[in-house]
Amino acid sequence: MPTVVIMPALGLAQDTGRVLRWLKAAGESVVQGEPLVEVETDKATVEVEAPATGVLAAVRARPGDVVPVGQPMAVILAPGESPPPDETAAAPTAAAPGAPAHPLSPPPRPSAPGRIPASPRARRLAEELGVDLTAVRGSGPAGEITAEDVRAAAAGTAGRVWQVMVERLTRSWTTAPHFYLRRDVSAHGLVARRRRLRASLPELTYTDLLVQQAAAALRQHPRLLARWEDGRIVASGRVHIGLAVAVSDGVVVPVLHDADALSLEEIVRRRADLITRAQAGRLRPEDIRDGTFTISNLGMFDVDAFYPIVNPPQAAILGVGRIADRVVAVDGRPVVRPALTLTLSCDHRVADGAAAARFLDTLARGLESLEGEAP
After folding, report:
1. Span 31-88, pLDDT tens digits
2. What per-residue string of b and e applies to 70-98 under the rule 16 or more CB within 10 Å gives b?
3. Which parts of the chain are beta strand (E)?
4. CA proximity to 247, closest of 65, 99, 36, 43
5. How far is it, in rounded angstroms, from Cα 74 to Cα 56?
6. Do 5 and 50 contact (CB within 8 A), yes or no?
7. I want to staple 108 with a disulfide (CB 3.0 to 4.6 A). Which of 16, 143, 172, 265 is the partner?
8. Would you name the residues annotated as active-site residues?
9. Contact between residue 310 and residue 316 where contact means Cβ atoms under 8 Å apart
């Protein structure tokens, strides 16, 4: 029986996904588990893997289409199979912002093998704007891509991620009653520990050490891992830490799943891989699922402190400022030591001030306990 390729649900609040490009063409062989299609959601651009081995057929979702979750996009046929009639019929989808509406159907074939039909002007403009012509639907004769098509694609791609991010955070800001706790923390041990370990872990960052300490603190304070859903608190207990990553057209939040069970070496390796693929637009669906807590570190931008907006449907997000020398009192005498500021933003429907303060205290003490390891 043909295997249907559907638009997957990549988040609790996701209703649709936008098809960016197919990595295989209709008629090509595919292998189960290999990347099949790039999909853009409100959180990230992800690669959806082939659910079966066979031949891709009946591609209904074209680049630029916004497809409801669960709707078929194509089928994969085993040898000798034919696509069922109900899978080959075109179906309407929501129009993508900045892109022309059109029925779901296979894209026009190139005029020559391997060549995309596009005017010379459109090719020059696509190179200037960084537009992938394979993801553009041509409106010219025989499906030729025009300069106007390229401009529309550039506007739709660049604007949608930012627009959806704004809408999500606006909903969070206007529906979740935020409160904030702020604490200055000595970073003397943190700096020393990173310096000492970088010989064996050259990719080690302060974020990795913060993830390790935050995961241990969250295990002790699971209320910060819950979420508000349908008028009630839903517990999680799983320490899935998302990392806010700046990309060219917004922010994505890949997730370190079960971070409390990872060694520091595993955290470093997974964090480096996730950020590299996030910035290249090659995250997979599982990379952005099920986050229960988020860390946003702006220290590398020389930000001292900031107040992040809770990443829905989570209950809390930790804002991390830069590490800088400050004058502090040690045994009643002024001493210059590195320090940083942590700001915890919480959804008051899920956690109260006392619960949040206990978590922040555990985290701060964990970071400052590293001073005992400093040379």
Report:
1. 998 999 988 876 677 888 899 999 999 898 989 888 888 889 999 998 888 877 654 4
2. ebbbbbbbeeeeeeeeebeeebebeebeb
3. 3-6, 16-22, 29-30, 35-40, 45-49, 54-57, 66-68, 72-77, 178-186, 227-229, 232-234, 241-243, 245-247, 250-252, 255-256, 293-297, 316-320, 324-330, 333-347
4. 43
5. 7
6. yes
7. 143
8. 348, 352
9. yes
Does residue 182 register a pLDDT over 90? yes
Does the pTM of the predicted model rise above 0.85?
no
Is the alpha carbon torsion for 293, 368, 275, 127 positive or negative?
A: positive
Torsions phi, psi for 87 (to 5 deg): -95, -10
User: Cα dist. 95→39, 47, 249 in Å?
Assistant: 15, 21, 20
Whose CA is closest to 190, among 52, 370, 375, 1?
370
Q: Please state, in angstroms and rounded to a whole number, the distance separating the CA atoms of residues 74 and 339.
A: 54
